[in-house]
Amino acid sequence: MSKQRIFSGIQPSGNLHLGNYLGAIKNWVKLQNDFDSIFCVVDLHAITVPQDPEKIRKKIIEVAKIYLACGIDPKKSAIFIQSHVPEHAELCWILNTLVKISELERMTQFKDKSAKNKEGVGMGLFDYPVLMAADILLYDTQVVPVGEDQLQHIEITRTLANRFNKKFGETFVIPEPFITREGMRIMGLDDPAKKMSKSAESEYNYIALTDSEEAVRRKIKKAVTDSGTEIKYTDDPPRVDEASPRVEAGKPALKNLINIYSLLSDKKPQEIEELYAGKGYAEFKEGLAEVVVDFLRPFQEKYNALTDEEVLKILQAGAEKVRPLARKKLEEVKKKVGFIL
Ligand code: TRP
Fold first, then answer.
1. Is the pLDDT of residue 239 over 80?
2. Which of 153-167, 186-200, 315-329 comes out lowest in average pLDDT?
3. What is the DSSP string of 78-129?
4. Local confidence band at 336 (pLDDT 50, 70, 90 cut-offs)
5. What is the spatial distance between Cα 74 and Cα 312, in angstroms, rounded to a whole number?
6. Is 144 in the pocket of ligand 1 (CB under 6 A)?
7. Could you identify the atom of ligand 1 that is nearest to the CA of residue 131?
8. Where are the domains of the chain?
9. Ligand 1 within 6 A of 146 CB?
């Protein structure tokens, strides 16, 4: 039986952090053994907000190095740069003719990002979900491992795939999102109500995968905690419905720190509670810093050993591998819409 295909990607912008690793890449490393896997550095998505050319050039290589140093194996998975396969932009254009403006206006991520953008919102940002749909649909992707915040984008991908299939005949596979417990949201260290973000204003929001040991200790020391002294893991209260905001009773800041500890050390939250029974926040934070540093050390050794040249070769080989799939699918699409090949 042939393996199911997964596709996922990360934008080369901002500093990749523990949330990206624990919420995404760590799962990909496991999934690549059981799935036919494609992991993309989505540079076309990154320029939907203004970017500095020199910086983005560096970031593209950096993201690829992070994939590799985290354990994505180019023998098992294809790693490539989105703009190396122009079919993504081409399919995006065709899907643009099927999407409704009102559907894109409903996207939460668009609403959030455009609220921050006082100088006027670019068309690219508005069209972001359609490009993401093209990424996924080009490769007959069955499963898309993503964070919870991307569910709405997967939903519109499914809508567009169904709409195309209905209008032009069976063409696209309808993808399913895949979210694991480990895909849980890692929240900001300075604000446990919001997801850890690589575009956060303060560097105290996240621990970058490239942070020094000193920075890790400093940031964890400064991380906000809840009132009280006990190391206690509080579970989410049940949500009334999807639309209701996530109310965190209990200790959201501590819960987030325990989650990080738990995911990096493979200890259950309850074991961590026991480990720190009768001890205070300071000691817990020291322990957490140790766990984080122990994780980052070997990761950074691998990262630093990779040269730009070898990474670029891997990315080019990845593009070679996926390009025929993209080309074939796009040809099928073009034929169906009536273009002459
Ligand atoms: N929008 C995704 C994110 O911000 C990144 C992304 C772009 C993606 N294209 C994709 C994820 C295709 C999965 C599949 O996390």
1. no
2. 186-200
3. EEEEGGGSTHHHHHHHHHHTTS-HHHHHT-HHHHHHHHH-TT---HHHHHHH
4. very high
5. 12
6. yes
7. 9
8. 5-179+308-337, 203-303
9. yes
> Per-residue pLDDT tens for 308-324?
999 999 999 999 999 99
Report how far residue 319's alpha carbon sits from residue 326's, in angstroms, rounded to the nearest whole number. Answer: 10
For ligand 1, atom 14, the nearest C-alpha belongs to 8
Which residues have CB under 8 Å from 164's CB, separation 6+?
95, 98, 171, 172, 333
* C-beta 107 within 6 A of ligand 1: no
Atom of ligand 1 nearest to the CA of 42: 7
Name the architecture of domain 5-179+308-337: 3-Layer(aba) Sandwich (3.40)
Q: State the Cα–Cα distance between residues 196 and 202, nearest whole angstrom.
A: 11
CATH of domain 203-303: 1.10.240.10
Rg of the chain on CA atoms, in Å: 21
Element (H, E) at 36: strand 36-41
User: Which of 143, 146, 185, when mutated, tests ligand 1's pocket best, judged by the most ligand atoms within 8 Å of its CB?
Assistant: 146
Amino acid letter, residue 111: K
Residue 294, Cβ neighbours under 10 Å: how many? 12
Cβ contacts of residue 98 below 8 Å, gap of 6+? 160, 163, 164, 167
3-state secondary structure 13-34: CCCCEHHHHHHHHHHHHHHCCC
**According to the model, what pLDDT value does residue 209 have?**
96
Chain Cα centroid distance, residue 115:
21
Report how far apart the first and last C-alpha atoms of the chain are (Å, whole number).
33
DSSP label at residue 6: E
Spacing, Cα 10 to ligand 1 middle (Å):
6
Amino acid at 313: K
Residue 195 is a catalytic residue: yes
